[in-house]
Design goal:
- The chain has a single domain, classed as Roll (Lipovitellin-phosvitin complex, beta-sheet shell regions).
- The chain is of the alpha+beta class and 310 residues long.
- Helix 4 packs antiparallel against helix 5 and helix 5 runs parallel beside helix 6.
- 19% of the residues lie in helices and 54% in strands.
């Protein structure tokens, strides 16, 4: 659960933090999309995820419903030549999970039951990491993500040392600075160098470091240039799959993983300031997890909305 929140929060950089500004963003029926930040630029976003997970344990179906919201603040704290330092802060976190008739909830803005998960979430709230990148989208460095992992593990006072060690090991593989460098370098949305007109598209491929290795291929299509409202809309159409031989390790158990599916949506760009201020994404993923000779089919349906707030 925690890994999912961390991973999807980092994915805000793909859909919510792609600032696209030009001194002349529209020309005729074309638009130029370019990453651009100035020191002091600050944006607050909210990510909402509604997820339905169906599992079939033998002949018994099991449904898990997850509702997750994360408040996220991004601030350009420095700019030297063409290298921008972007501070990314987890402002607040909320979730509600219902499975097997039981509901677990958390809200960082309220008092919560003390358990390892709530302690981990408390530690994450208010923490930041810094990403350094050039305006052409090249990631130069990730700083501070290891500090977030340290804070989370150290705050899990109700967990035993074995649980803490397992959590640290799993999180470092996905969210340590080295892993984050690889993910962001491959996943950060990079725009074509030339101006675009309606119907133009480009493709991006990414190998993703997560709980298990994945591969995503996404096509971005310029759907609309709305000069009256000074926005551009990109259509998102892609596929995602586990890599061949992918495995997931949890609680000391190694499981074979096989998933594939589609992800479709769109993102709206405000051309007056270059902010991608609204993004929606629908994911439909099917597959299975196999452990100790037992294969568990799964279907995961997700609806994700990321929007800028005042």
């Amino acid at each position: 659960m925690l890994n999912k929140i961390l991973y999807l929060s980092f994915c805000l950089l793909l859909l919510g933090a792609c600032n696209n500004k030009s001194t002349n963003p529209t020309k005729g029926d074309e638009v130029e999309l370019k990453l651009h930040f100035e020191k002091g630029d600050k944006h607050s976003l909210v990510m909402s995820i509604k997820q339905n997970i169906e599992q079939l344990m033998g002949s018994t179906p099991n449904t898990t419903i997850q509702n997750i919201e994360t408040g996220y603040v991004m601030e350009a704290i420095a700019k030297e030549n063409d290298i921008v330092s972007l501070k990314n802060t987890y402002d607040w976190n909320v979730f509600e999970i219902t499975m097997m008739g039981n509901t677990t909830s958390y809200d960082s803005r309220k008092e919560n039951e003390v358990n390892p998960l709530s302690q981990a979430m408390d530690a994450m709230t208010g923490k930041s990491f810094i990403m350094k990148f050039t305006e052409d989208g090249k990631i130069n460095a990730i700083e501070g993500s290891n500090n977030i992992i340290d804070a989370i593990v150290d705050n899990m006072s109700t967990a035993n040392e074995q649980q803490k060690a397992a959590m640290r090991q799993q999180m470092e593989k996905q969210f340590g600075e080295e892993a984050m460098m690889k993910n962001m370098a491959q996943m950060f949305l990079q725009y074509p160098k030339n101006p675009l007109k309606v119907g133009d598209s480009w493709e991006q491929k990414a190998d993703i470091v997560s709980s298990f290795p994945m591969h995503a291929e996404t096509t971005y299509i310029l759907k609309t240039i709305d000069k009256a409202n000074n926005i551009a809309i990109l259509e998102i159409d892609g596929t995602i799959r586990s890599k061949e031989g992918a495995q997931l390790t949890s609680s000391g158990m190694t499981m074979d993983v096989e998933f594939s599916g589609t992800q479709k949506g769109e993102t709206t760009i405000d051309l007056s300031n270059g902010m991608a201020n609204l993004a929606t994404l629908s994911q439909d993923i099917k597959g299975s997890i196999t452990a100790m000779g037992q294969k568990v089919p799964m279907t995961i349906i997700s609806e994700i909305i990321i929007k800028e707030v005042n």
